[in-house]
Design a protein that fits this description.
It comes from Sphaerosporella brunnea. GO terms for molecular function: phosphoprotein phosphatase activity. Pfam families: Y_phosphatase3. InterPro entries: Prot-tyrosine_phosphatase-like (IPR029021), Tyr/Ser_Pase_IphP-type (IPR026893), Tyr_Pase_AS (IPR016130), Tyr_Pase_dom (IPR000387). The chain starts with 16 loop residues before the first strand and ends with a helix. A five-stranded mixed sheet has the order 1-2-5-3-4. The model has no long low-confidence stretch (mean pLDDT 89). Helix 6 packs across helix 11 and helix 9 crosses helix 11. Helix 3 links the parallel strand 3 and strand 4. The protein has 13 helices and five strands. By secondary structure, it is an alpha/beta fold.
Length: 283
């Protein structure tokens, strides 16, 4: 029987885990290969020791960064204000693929929910290059009202090319070992992990267990997360990884697309690519 191992120790990388080990620990059996697919929060503040551990211990080859342009801008602004230099500014010893997961189509969809006068205000801020204040308009008026579940389901509709791009990377043997992250490693990273696990035929209870593990993984930075969430207009619901979300994702895909596999067929991640993913990650 597989036994739970202690969480890896990093100085400034949070919510890190080996997806295979996380699933296997919950199931008590080696269903997935370990040491290949990792997930975490952002790597911007990783120390030299953290980076060394990612390379020497985890043999990291590829990082998939799911953050938006606004998040990269905001992180750079915060670093400038504090007088610190992000480790992300130095060339990492791994390949980084940036995928703007919350796509232009997704943003345009959210704009439809703004009253006309707030839409004009948003457009003015955008024209002036004030991207972060513009994000606050959408966050406080649309994203908070939709809630985490609503936004997650919207992303399944409007971020399909980005989801496909990420999954295609994970289906290529030459990219491994791979680490996927967003800002917290909770929502976008969590959604991608859910889709991967369903393809790998992981029992739903284990998928849920891995998803909610972010609640503990982010505990050391909860106050920082809350400050950052408030700064862009989000509420406390966006600090959580609710257990119900996984079932809502599966239910939505079944109702709207005929199931997860039908959804993946529709976005271009067909049977052959899913078999490649299974071959790489199923023990």
């Amino acid at each position: 029987m597989h036994t739970q191992t202690a969480p890896p120790s990093f100085d400034s990388i949070y919510n890190f885990r080996d997806l295979g080990a996380s699933i296997n620990a919950h199931l008590g059996t080696a269903l997935l290969k370990e040491g290949l697919l990792f997930r975490s929060g952002r790597l911007d503040d990783a120390t030299a020791s953290d980076r060394q551990k990612l390379v020497e211990t985890y043999k990291l080859a590829t990082v998939v960064d799911l953050r938006t342009k606004s998040e990269h801008i905001r992180k750079a602004q915060l670093a400038a204000q504090s007088g610190t230099t992000s480790s992300a500014e130095t060339s990492p010893p791994w390949k980084t693929v940036r995928i703007n997961f919350l796509s232009r189509a997704f943003e345009l969809h959210l704009l439809l929910f703004l009253p006309w006068y707030k839409l004009l205000y948003f457009l003015l801020l955008t024209l002036l290059g004030l991207r972060i204040p513009a994000v606050r308009v959408i966050a406080s008026n649309v994203i908070c009202k939709k809630g985490l579940t609503g936004i997650t389901l919207d992303s399944l509709r409007y971020c399909q090319p980005e989801i496909l791009q990420a999954l295609e990377i994970l289906s290529q043997e030459t990219e491994y070992p791979v680490l996927v992250h967003c800002t917290q490693g909770k929502d976008r990273t969590g959604l991608l992990a859910v889709l991967v696990c369903v393809v790998l035929e992981v029992p739903l209870e284990a998928v849920v267990a891995d998803y909610v593990a972010s609640n503990e993984g982010l505990r050391p930075v909860r106050e920082q997360m809350w400050r950052e969430a408030k700064d862009v207009g989000l509420d406390e619901d966006y600090l959580k990884a609710p257990e119900k979300l996984v079932a809502e994702v599966v239910k939505f895909l079944e109702a709207e697309f005929g199931g997860v596999e039908a959804y993946l067929d529709g976005i271009g991640f067909g049977k052959a690519k899913r078999e490649d993913l299974r071959r790489l990650l199923v023990a």
